[in-house]
Amino acid sequence: MKITVIGVGNMGSAIIKGLNNSAKFTISAMNPVNPRVAKLAQELNFHLVNTTAEVASLKPDIIILTTPAPVTVAVAKELATAIDNKAIIISAAAGISHQELAKVLPNKTIANIIPNTPVEVNAGTIGLALPTDITAEATTTILTVLNSLGDVIELPEDKLDIIGVIGGCGPAFVDVMMDAMSDAAVKHGLDRQTAYQVVASMVKGTGTLAYDSKLAPALLRDQVTSPGGTTIKGVEALEKHGFRYAIIDAVNKANGEQ
Ligand SMILES: NC(=O)C1=CN([C@@H]2O[C@H](COP(=O)(O)OP(=O)(O)OC[C@H]3O[C@@H](n4cnc5c(N)ncnc54)[C@H](OP(=O)(O)O)[C@@H]3O)[C@@H](O)[C@H]2O)C=CC1
Ligand SMILES: O=C(O)[C@@H]1CCC=N1
């Protein structure tokens, strides 16, 4: 299957690396001329072009739009005249609706996704909204690509924003916590590299346990807080400093609440 990724920034690069790991696809990409992207194309050995006309000549089965949200509709409009109707468009642009894209891409199959950066290591969380009139064949094609990048959660488009905040922005929120924990470990005498390793391993294990057991996070927390022990003292400090509400409000704000 031939896949062209348009916009090779943080998300586009992560998708390309994840697709490249799975070694199942012929990958190409389009980006304005940029030495960073040229270097990545050389390293991963994918074909790089700079114009939508060149994208058309590649005859991709799938085009993934990872351009900045504000320019995505304009890029889609340019593509509409260049590509044939067979190419399936998958847009990762947060906040750009199916309807806005369908207006400039008539007669094209368009799916909306919100992926996250862990797609780079094929451990992504990908919210997917499919159009109601999509064919079984197109659905299979889209799922073949996305399943190679991580967990795909299919849902109606009106739920894509909140999945996008939890799945898409969530890694940044967890990274902030990991960074703070690493600083605290360094303060208490651990060297920084070991601190990063311990924190990443702990988050990976905690995530895997929650994912595999399907237990509620509160129950998993209770299993750590031994009576009269150290953890409950830390949890008390988190409550005192409003950690829980800080997280809830981060989600509120990322989801557009004023
Ligand atoms: N980052 C994330 O975790 C997530 C991002 N997304 C979505 O992915 C999209 C990209 O975000 P992100 O990767 O963070 O942003 P970046 O700024 O890191 O990447 C954007 C890329 O698009 C390129 N670009 C700009 N204009 C054009 C154009 N007209 N044609 C082709 N390429 C273009 C830029 O090129 P250059 O800089 O070389 O000029 C850059 O390489 C957004 O729509 C965002 O909503 C969705 C979920 C998660
Ligand atoms: O920050 C953003 O707008 C994008 C969408 C989800 C994650 N990053």
Automatic annotation (TrEMBL):
Source organism of the structure: Limosilactobacillus rudii
UniProt keyword Zinc-finger present: no
Regions annotated as coiled coil: none
Transmembrane spans: none
N-terminal signal peptide: none
Name under which the protein is recorded: Pyrroline-5-carboxylate reductase
Location of the Pyrroline-5-carboxylate reductase catalytic N-terminal domain: 2-95
Family assignment from sequence similarity: Belongs to the pyrroline-5-carboxylate reductase family.
Principal cellular location given in the protein's record: cytoplasm
Lineage per the UniProt record: Bacteria, Bacillati, Bacillota, Bacilli, Lactobacillales
